[in-house]
Structure prediction request, 709 residues.
Amino acid sequence: MRLWPLRRPKITHAPRLLALILAVALLGTAAACYALPSPQGWADPVVDGSTIFYSPTAGKLVAYDRTAQKVIWDFPGSQDKNLKLEAIYSTPILDSQALYLAAYDGSVYALDRTSGQRKWETKTGSPIIGGVLLKDGIIYGGNSDGRVFALQSSDGRKMWEQQAGRRVWSTPVGAGSLIVVTSMDSDVYAFNMQGGLVWKSTVASAAIASSPGVVADRLTFGGFDKRFHSIEEGTGAQVWSTAPAGNWFWTQGLISGDSLYAGNLDGHVYAYDASNGSLKWQSDLGSPIRSAPVLVGSALVVATRSGAIHGLDPVSGKEKWPAIEAGATIFANLVPSQTSTVYAVTQPGTKNGAHLLEINPTTGSSTTVIAP
Amino acid sequence: MPPQLGFIFDTFLINPMVNVTIVLARVLLGNYGLAIIVFTLIMRGLTLPLTLRQVHSQRKMSQLQPQLNEISKRVKDPKKRSAETMKLYKEAGASPAGCLLPMLIQFPIWIALYQVIRIVLGSTPETLMDLSSRLYPWSFIQQAVPLGNHFLFWDMGKPDTFYVLPVLVAGSMWVQQKLTMTQASMSTANQNQAQTNQTLLWMMPLMFGWFTLTVPSGLAIYWLLTNAVGIIMNYYVFGWKGTSLMTIFVKNAAGGSKSQRGRAGNAGRPARPERDQSSPSLDAPAASRADRSRAGKRGANGRNGRGGSKRKDDRGSADPGIEPARPGPQPGGGGSP
Prediction:
C-alpha cells in the first residue's frame, strides 16, 4: 500500500480542497475565539490596619501598604517562581502570626504576615473555590472533589478528611460545636470537630454554592433552586424556604434585625423576613449579583457583575445615591471597614488587573485606593 | 463576532444545544459522556439525507473522472472545457457543491458544541455562572447542574491527556475517507488525481487529530462517533455485498488485482454505470472483458457463471463478487455448448 504521494500533487479536486481549507479556517477560528477559559478568581480584600491583602491578578496575592502606597510583598514571590496558584477564589484569613490562603491549585498555604514567606503548604488534590475557616487552631475547608478537610494551623498537618457530596465550593462556617458546609450536590453537611457527620440536610433541590449564614440557632443559605432556605442549626431540619426567585442565589445572605438581604443572578436584590422567608421587597439592579451585600450606616451597599455599586435603603429598597461605576466586573464580596466605609475590588484578569475602591455609603462617593 | 450574529448564534444554536444535552445527561443518569453519544446519534440522524446525498455525490464525481480526463485532453479552450464539464455534471446529476454542503452544515455545529461543552461542564466558577443565563426555566434542567465532568477515564471539559482520542479521531477519519474514495479515483491511470486524493486522505485526519489535542474530550468524542457512524453508513450503503475490507484497503491502494491493472487500458473510455448501488462493482470493467470472452465461447446462448450447468471451459468470473455486464439466460435454460 502506497502511503504517501510520490511527488507533489497538482491540486485539481477543488471541492475537497475547498472543504479542507474551510475546515481549517473555521476550526482555527473557533479555537482562537473560544479557547478554554482560565480561572480568574474573586477573593475578597482583607484589611488589617493600613495593610490591604488582595489579588490584583489571577493567582497572585499582594500585601499593600496603603499609607506608604507600595507593595510590601507578593505571593508567589521571586523565591517561588515555579509556583502557579492559577487563581484565588477564597478570601485569606489572618491570625496573630500567619495568613492562610487556599488556592485553585488545590493547596492551602500558610504565609508569614509581614514577609509573605511560605511557612507550610498542604495539597488537597483538587481546586479550592470556597474559603477556609480558622477555628480553635484548626483550618477547615472544602475542595472541588467534595472533600472537607481539617488542618492543623501550626504545620498544615491533616487532622481529618470527609466526603461531602461531589463539590464543595463554599466556605465552612462554625455553628456552635459544628462545622457546616454546603455542597454542590444540594445538601448541607454538619460535622463535629473530630470529623464525624452529625447531620445532613436535604432541604434544597439543586446545587448550593454559597456559604451559609449563622444567626442565633439557624442557618440560612441560597441555592441553584432559586430559593433561600433556613434550617435548624442543631438538626438541619427545615424552618422555611422562600418562593423561587428569577435565577440562582450565589451570594451569602446578610441578616440584619428581622431582615435577610441577598443578591441574585437575575440582577435583583431580595429582602426577606428572616423569621418566615416572606418577601419584603425586591429591587432590580440590572446585572447579575454574586457579591454579598453589606449594611453600613443606613445604606445597603450592593455590587453587580457589571461593576455598578448601588446604595439602597434597607427598608424600601430604593436607591439612595446614583450608582458608582467601578468600570470592571465585581464578583468579590464587599468588605466593610472599621471607619464605616466599604471596600470593593474588581475581578483579577480584567484589563489592567484588579483595582480597589473605597466607598462612602453615606454620600455615595468613591475613592480609588489601588489602581491597576 | 458581531453582537447581532452572536445573539443569533447563542439563541438558536448554543442555548438549545446546552439545554438538550443537559436534558439528555439528566435522563442518562447525569452522565454527560453518554449525553454526547446520544446527541451525536441524533445529529447524524437529522443530517442523514444530506449525508447520503454527499456520499452519492462524491461517488458520482469520482465515476465521472475518466470522462473529465477525456474532456481535458480533447478541449483545450478553458471556457469550453468548463462549459462541457458543467454539462457533464448536469447530465450525470453530480454537483461539486453536493460534497461541500453537508460539511458546511456540520461546521457551525462543531463550533457550537465546542462552546456548549465548555459552558455546560463549568469547570471554573465563571463558566458555571455563565451557564445560569442560558438554562431554560424548567426545574428539570436547573436541578441537573453542575454535571459531572468525567466519562470513562476522560475529563470531558479538557483535552485528552492520554492521547487516545487524537489517534482514534484521526484513524476513524482516515477509514471514512478511504471508504468514500472509489477505485476510479485511486486508479493509477490518473496519477495526479490519485496523488491529490492520497494527500487529502492523510491531511484531513492528521489535521483533525491535531485539533483533538487542543479541544475538550467531549468534542473529540463527538467527532469520533460522527466518523464511526459515517463509516457504517458508507459501508452499509455501498460496501456490504461482495466487497471485502481486503478489496478496499489492500487491493485498492496497491494498484490492485490483475483486473484493476487491466482497467488501465480502459482509461479514457466512458465508465460503465454501476448496476447495483448496494454492491459497488469495483471490478465491473474487468467483468465486461471476462463476459465478452465467455460470450464468444458460448455463442448466442451465453450462460453466465451462476445459473445453468457448468461448462468445462467455463472459467467463471475472476472475482466471485463481480456482477455480469450482461444479463445471462435463465438458470437451466439455454442450449448445449
